[in-house]
């Protein structure tokens, strides 16, 4: 029998598992309880609502992945290597979370949920915005480094470029999911980011192994 802490963790993990395969509106409290193996009473002991659960689950999921982002965007790593590692991360997550025979490409469940809800689920929207802004900050640190080393052909605004990379990546993943086409995601990912950045041509084909 689970204790209270274990039950909470199970609910958080189940919420994210369901959100990777279904839309936010298609998941009810009953679904979460059934898959987690808990009662509704146990659910409402920990969370006031479905929105509260999914916001907490999203934040937990983000915190678990922050070490990976810190490693990629570490100031000890060159900016061009950060870019290569970020691109590798996006591609590797597709291989990790793809559903064989069903979907080759997965989108970010947190950001996607934020676009699926209306004003009545402001908690989900706020969480999605918050975590998107956090990721954009990491990207901005990379863009600032590339700019500082003179690798960009134009003097663009760092925050704007970082936000555009975030927008492009998530838009590309949505395209890949709709067409179930991971090959296009792989081929267009680097090209699109390099174009947004106006990265000088001599740096565009640098692989992670070459840059290390």
Automatic annotation (TrEMBL):
<dbReference type="Pfam" id="PF00440">
    <property type="entry name" value="TetR_N"/>
</dbReference>
<keyword id="KW-0238">DNA-binding</keyword>
<feature type="DNA-binding region" description="H-T-H motif">
    <location>
        <begin position="28"/>
        <end position="47"/>
    </location>
</feature>
<protein>
    <submittedName>
        <fullName>TetR/AcrR family transcriptional regulator</fullName>
    </submittedName>
</protein>
<dbReference type="InterPro" id="IPR009057">
    <property type="entry name" value="Homeodomain-like_sf"/>
</dbReference>
<keyword id="KW-0804">Transcription</keyword>
<keyword id="KW-0805">Transcription regulation</keyword>
<dbReference type="InterPro" id="IPR036271">
    <property type="entry name" value="Tet_transcr_reg_TetR-rel_C_sf"/>
</dbReference>
<feature type="domain" description="HTH tetR-type">
    <location>
        <begin position="5"/>
        <end position="65"/>
    </location>
</feature>
<dbReference type="InterPro" id="IPR001647">
    <property type="entry name" value="HTH_TetR"/>
</dbReference>
<dbReference type="GO" id="GO:0003677">
    <property type="term" value="F:DNA binding"/>
</dbReference>
